[in-house]
Write a structure and sequence with these properties.
The chain has about 475 residues and is mainly β. It has one domain: Porin. Helix content is about 5%, strand content about 55%. It contains 2 helices and 19 strands.
């Protein structure tokens, strides 16, 4: 854990070349519109009214259509407002979490308090055919739980996109160093995402579940860091057809002994065809390789999926995909070196008159979340943000994940499974134009069919409760040009 500062510094230096989301626009050269400007939510804080209303009100009242490819690395959105200026915003936040006994701590200590002190910065730099977005939050935590102690906190999201006549290139990097699983981390607080503010959606910035290092088992021991670097190229074959290629590399490392470190490499290609301005169909092939530090076992996973997407700007972004999945094992399991199963999922964002509902679901082979050398995983997350009054805003979040062992390292593990749940809700109120106050509650539940033993205490189910209070402040946007 103490090496996290060096690790973070190295990743920060490398990831500034990485970034974002985009879709090949299949327009004729003579009729191709000016590339749409994009918002990367948490860069613009709609809750505190930080836009320059004297000059930008018209651009923030309407949305540009979403251009995320159906077969790409990111989750579609409802659209994005226009951007007139490049800017950066520094900020600060303090959050206090009062928790019952932690799920992954070696010293059960009952209720405890953890204080997070975090500095944040967001940057948006837009040119005529490219855009850079950076969200970063870093600091540390001080806890009264002796088993948890003091820890670092780091989260980073970088998006760089380029757009030419028919070609588009998107580079993405997202990094985190946290004291516990990122799945449901600090639900109902602003700690869940990097940057100075914005959406409370747990996922960094909208990556498909298949491209994120899996860590959905709460009892994986101790602090951990993860990084996902992605490159996406899209090419418009015609006015309606486009092809997308993606390369991704992810890591998951644990600071303490007892969990499994994982590397995953992904290559994918997809073809999309627009049936109408709102409806798109596609075909996707994805190859994933999972490797484990210090273990000879490995997994190669191949998925072929049919996809359907529907977008209505400002109202609906829907994506559905599924198909066969073939998994091969480096070391045979029960005298077999392969298995056939299915993979698929769905993403939905629905905009109501005064609220937004989001839902993601995925099923398929994953890295094992630090407990297994490979697992069959189901993951569901849902959230809603809605106003209660002119000043108060509420949010609800829910998540469920199931990991069932593939039994690669130990065949007897084939029946082992973990079910992880979280549910939370929060209230937020602006204080002036540049500050925000939050209250929240979350519960974390984990069940397994095998006992988990920590410091001589064994159990198959655990409940952790969390009460949060937070304050967040940032400057007004500082215009670069």
């Amino acid at each position: 854990m103490r090496n996290s500062t060096k690790i973070t510094a190295a990743l920060l230096a490398g990831s500034i070349l990485a970034g974002g989301s985009v879709r090949a626009m299949a327009q004729d050269p003579d009729s191709k519109p000016k590339p749409a400007a994009r918002e990367y939510p948490p860069l613009i804080d709609a809750n505190t009214g930080d836009q320059d209303t004297s000059t930008d009100q018209q651009s923030t009242n309407s949305l540009n259509p979403d251009t995320v490819p159906l077969t790409g690395v990111q989750i579609p959105t409802l659209g994005s407002p226009g951007i007139r200026h490049s800017y950066w915003i520094p900020g600060f936040q303090y959050t206090n979490l009062v928790q019952s006994t932690s799920l992954n701590q070696a010293v059960p200590s009952g209720w405890n308090s953890t204080n997070y002190l975090v500095g944040s910065v967001s940057l948006l730099e837009a040119w005529s055919r490219s855009q850079l977005a950076v969200n970063y939050s870093g600091g540390g935590s001080i806890s009264t739980d002796q088993g948890q102690g003091n820890n670092d906190y780091q989260q980073l999201g970088v998006v760089q996109s380029f757009e030419w006549q028919r070609w588009q290139l998107v580079l993405i990097d997202q990094f985190s160093y946290l004291s516990q699983s990122q799945f449901g981390f600090a639900a109902a607080t602003n700690l869940a995402t990097p940057g100075v503010g914005g959406s409370l959606e747990p996922a960094l910035p909208g990556l498909q579940t298949s491209y994120q290092p899996a860590q959905t088992i709460f009892t994986s021991i101790g602090p951990r860091y993860s990084n996902s670097a992605d490159a996406q190229v899209a090419y418009a074959l015609s006015r309606r057809a486009s092809v997308t290629l993606v390369g991704s590399y992810g890591i998951l490392r644990f600071s303490d002994v007892g969990s499994i470190d994982t590397n995953n490499s992904i290559l994918s290609g997809g073809l999309s065809y627009e049936l109408s301005p709102k409806d798109t169909i596609g075909f996707l092939y994805r190859f994933s390789a999972y490797r484990y530090i210090g273990a000879p076992q490995g997994i190669n996973d191949q998925v072929a999926e049919v996809a359907y997407g529907r977008k209505v700007t400002g109202k609906l972004a829907f994506q559905l995909f599924g198909g066969p999945d073939r998994t091969t094992f480096r070391v045979p399991v029960n005298n077999s070196t392969s298995q056939i199963s299915g993979a698929g999922g769905a993403n939905l964002t629905y905009g109501l008159s005064r609220s937004t509902v989001s839902l993601t679901y995925s099923h398929g082979v994953s890295g094992g979340s630090g407990e297994f050398t490979g697992s069959t995983a189901d993951q569901l997350q849902a959230g809603i943000v809605f106003p209660l009054s002119r000043l108060w805003q509420a949010n609800l979040a829910f998540g469920y994940a199931r990991n069932k062992s593939l039994g690669i390292s130990v065949p007897s593990q084939l029946s082992e499974a973990f079910d992880s749940w979280y549910i939370g809700g929060g209230l937020a109120r602006p204080i002036g134009r540049n500050a925000n106050f939050t209250l929240g509650y979350a519960a974390y539940i984990q069940n397994s069919n095998v006992p988990i033993c920590v410091a001589g205490i064994c159990e198959t189910s655990h409940l952790e409760q969390q009460i949060s209070i937070g304050f967040q402040w940032h400057t007004r946007p500082l215009v670069l040009r």
